[in-house]
Amino acid sequence: MTEKEDKFSSSASPNTQNLEKRIKLDLNSGMVGKRELEVSVLRQLLAAVLNKEKEKRFKLKEEKEIHLTEEELTEVISSEAKKRREAIDFFVKGDRPSLAEKEKKELEILERYMPEQISEQDLKKLVEEAVKKTGARTMKDMGRVMAELMPKTKGRADGNLVSKIVKELLGVS
């Protein structure tokens, strides 16, 4: 087995490698097209992916190169997007509209690589189902509802929005 073949034979699914490959191709395209913001965001994203791969390799005590699973890659992208959302909030509160706008553009670039987001109506239905399934009635039961929901919504819905909807339903119930 050659080094190249070994590099791509891992536990990662072909979709993950396709997504990672797509990010790298878009980075190259951005460099050729001199789209500085896109290049910067994609470099940061690939650095975060590399750090996650190193962390995973360290935890598994592996010597060979390890690729992330699709879920792990989505987690990294979601984490980077969350950082941008938080920065937007801080910049808006700090009356820095130009910096908030830059972060919004970065977020738009990252969202191209995230799975399709669940609509708020569909999310409310999922929350209602989880509340029924767990038998939750008060805010004390919120942890059980969130534990039921998060695997279904991970990477496809903002955790703060999920939490807000759960609070609304449990507060009204």
Walk me through the structure.
The chain is 75% helix and 0% strand. It is globular and about 55 Å long. The N terminus is likely disordered. The longest helix has 25 residues. With 173 residues, the protein is mainly alpha-helical. It is built from eight helices and no strands. The protein folds into two domains: 109 residues, Orthogonal Bundle (Hypothetical Protein Yqey, Chain: A, domain1), CATH 1.10.1510.10; 53 residues, Orthogonal Bundle (Arc Repressor Mutant, subunit A), CATH 1.10.10. It starts with a helix and ends with a helix.
- Radius of gyration based on Cα positions: 19 Å
The computed structural class is mainly alpha
Low-confidence stretches: 1-14
- The total of beta strands comes to 0
Annotation field: number of helices = 8
Key features?
173 residues, mainly alpha, Hypothetical Protein Yqey, Chain: A, domain1, Arc Repressor Mutant, subunit A, 75% helix, disordered N terminus
In short:
The chain has about 170 residues and is mainly α. It is about 75% helix and about 0% strand. It has two domains: about 5-110, Hypothetical Protein Yqey, Chain: A, domain1 (Orthogonal Bundle); about 120-170, Arc Repressor Mutant, subunit A (Orthogonal Bundle), CATH 1.10.10.
